[in-house]
Amino acid sequence: MAIRSSDIKKIINQYMPKQKWIPISDIQALIEAHYKLREADYTPHTITGVTNYPMWKKRIQCTLANLKISGQILHNPANHEYFIQ
Q: For the chain, what is the domain count?
């Protein structure tokens, strides 16, 4: 079973630094460090087109987008960074 949004939220809430802008690459590294990714997580995300972008990274982006919509996280699209108060 691939990583779920709820797993990503738990890791972000528990381990992501607060009051600091964090680049997406650091958030991805945080998820990798605190979750044992499985083969299914590395499956290319192909719903929106042919790509080699792994499913686990797409799930992180979708989770962050939902957190942004709900006001739980801020996003700086120019720098690809996120901020939790």
A: 1
**Distances in Å between the alpha carbon of 7 and those of 21, 48, 78, 82?**
21, 23, 27, 18
pTM of the model: 0.90
CA-closest candidate to residue 59, choices 20, 28, 25: 28
| Calpha distance 10→6 (Å, rounded) | 6
Residue 17 sits in which domain range?
Answer: 5-83
Residue-wise pLDDT tens digits, 8-59: 999 999 999 999 999 999 999 999 999 999 999 998 877 666 667 899 999 9
* Nearest alpha carbon to residue 9 among 56, 57, 60, 82: 60
Half-sphere exposure of 49 (CA within 13 A, CB side): 1
